[in-house]
# Entry
Amino acid sequence: MTISLTVNGSSHAIDADPATPLLYVLRDDLGLNGAKYGCGLGQCGSCTVVVDGEAVLSCMVPIMLLEGREVTTVEGLGTIDEPGPLQQAFIELQAAQCGYCIPGMMMSAHALLRRKAQPSEEEIREALTTNLCRCGTHMRILAAIRRAGELMRAASLPGPDEGRTG
Amino acid sequence: MWALKAAIVFVAAIFLAAGAFLVFAWRSEIPEDATAGEASFAPELVARGAQLAAVGNCIACHTVPGKPAFSGGLAVPTPFGTIYSTNITPDRDTGIGGWNEAAFERAMREGVDRAGNHLYPAFPYDHFTRVTAQDNRALYAFLMTRAAVKAEATENELPFPLEFRPLLAGWKLLFLRQGEVEPEAARSEEWNRGRYLVEGLGHCGACHTPRNAFGAEDRDRHFGGGEAEGWQAYAINPDSKAPIPWDEQSLAFYLRNGWHEFHGVSRGPMAEVTGNLSLLPDSDIAAIATYVVSVMGDPTPERAQRAAELREQFEADRLEQTADSQSSVALASGGQAGETLYLAACANCHQGARRQPFGGLNFELSTAVNAPNPQNIVNVVLFGLPPADGEASAVMPAFRHILSDQQLADLLAYMRESFSDEPAWSGLVEQVANTRSGAYKVTIRPSDGIERAPHNVGAEEE
# Structure
């Protein structure tokens, strides 16, 4: 059975069992290896992606529920040459140690920052409750998310010259 | 002339009746005790008070999650309006720092505060009135030795005329039976201890007994099932829908640990109850189980027969279980919408090889699937079970961003049909939509209750 999936803005026709978890399709069919297989039970968060603006656990989501919906993975946040603000902040603050949990962390943070560019510490922690990190870089991860928020706000504010050109 | 006289008599009668009612409703102020907050208490008394406060689950209503313990301010939604819990820390201006022991005991016994105001029965004094003077003393000692927190109580949001507190005297006349209950001589000491804890401080009936139009517990349907904070509190009398009936051992294990292999994990407001009960000695937990199981009574022969089959089936399964987190459930497509969803999204955990409390409960064992109202499943599927802060706990991922109202309704219909002999639920799409939108309010807390989170300094210094 063919299912049409929209991932990072491109649409794909996927020939798979409709019950297949999204994570498998992302990694095996689309070669998007950012989202990781951790527990396979929706408990660790390393497979987190964003669907229609909300963080979801891709190991738990059968693809049949995704027809007509927008999936964003960590690959959709920027490129190696032009990293997005979240990627830039995580690099800048060296927030990864082994890095296995990081794509999931970034996608949970992405969903949060889309809603609110200046979240409180409490809100960041709340948004990351479903993401585990075993290396213990939590403090750097928190700092990187705050930094990403700053970068996003700076990007969306009018620059000093902008007022004059219009 | 005659009409005027009649009118005067009528008005006078109204004034007299109103006056008589106000006299009836009037309670004296107990003078503020300036030194109450500085009193010291024997450490053993305070320790016993801590256990009793855990039985009473005082912290759950008197604390806003993440804020200092017992400082009040939690919004308690009721069918009549929203009531805000009060600050019961020993702060003199905003808490109970000026209350002497008599004032505390009167509040517990009669539902009247130090100043003489009637309290709303959201504070379950219909149960707390059963508490002995000795236990009240320990509770008082415990509360008066907590950190004083300055926190002004929020005004209640109640429609006219309910904000007029003297009316509560009428409510009490109808529904409050004050005082302790004599032990039943024919029953064991353990049973009587259990009844004392359950019907008194434990106030189990506040959630598990349905309420009448006046918000009072319907005594004829004792433990017949009620609701709390958007969750169904199941029937724990002969109407219990547990596929394997509770017995003393399983209930004591559940109350002690917050889960049982044949019943699943406690969640919603019950998670806080089981979390708090961890402070209690085993003997009290066993007493509570003995009493509650006696209220449930012996199961009918058919129910016992079915339970024996289930027990055999799941005990055999357990022997085959391995540590492998991957289940062997075949992912079959096709069939009805709900079945496909169940197999794709739920079966991996709920028919998987992981044991309770970290695996999903098999729905053959689920009280929720057999309950008259599917609300608890709706809550858990939409919002998940958030992890406890800093410790291993049961968790379930939230599906609200994945499943539409219709899809969840299909799933519920399939589960009801497959795992229960009860009649189909109705109005599912609307129920899911109202829960999702917040039109129907549901409180979501981690499995151990957020008050015990490490960042809650007030709760930690115990």
The helical segments of chain A are 22-29, 85-92, 102-115, 121-127, 138-156, 162-165.
